[in-house]
Amino acid sequence: MASNICPQDPDEVLENLLSWDHHPTRVKNLQKLHELCRILYERGERDFSLTTIASLAEKEGMFQKRVIYNSQSLEYRLLILSWDNHSQR
Fold first, then answer.
1. DSSP states along the chain
2. What is the pLDDT of residues 46-58, one digit of tens each?
3. CB 66 within 8 A of CB 1
4. pLDDT at 22 over 90
5. How does pLDDT run across 57-67, given as a tens digit for each residue?
6. Distances 37 to 56, 62 between C-alpha atoms, Å
7. pTM score of the predicted model
């Protein structure tokens, strides 16, 4: 279960991730991804699988969905996992 992997609140995770990475594109995409997940959560969505969120991110023009599986995309996966954990509470 995701709670063992990423137990923090998604807002805390985003804050931590932004402190690690200062690349403008990644910062912008992390913020957009966080907002996308927040909107989904507020609508009552509870499917925060990597596949689902990556597909939605691609539709929103953030990045191609296959990017989520690249080793350089750990930050995106951690943020999504935090939302998945948050949605299960």
1. -HHHH--S-HHHHHHHHHHH---HHHHHHHHHHHHHHHHHHHTT-----HHHHHHHHHHTTS--GGGGGSGGGHHHHHHHHHHHHHHT-
2. 999 999 999 999 9
3. no
4. no
5. 999 999 999 99
6. 10, 13
7. 0.89
Which tokens is 86 given?
Answer: 């948050």
d(CA 64, CA 20): 22
Q: Which residue bears the tokens 């137990």?
A: 7
Tokens read off for 30: 């992390």
**What's the token pair of residue 76?**
């995106």
Is there a contact between 65 and 11 (Cβ–Cβ < 8 Å)? no
- Tokens of residue 83, six digits: 């939302």
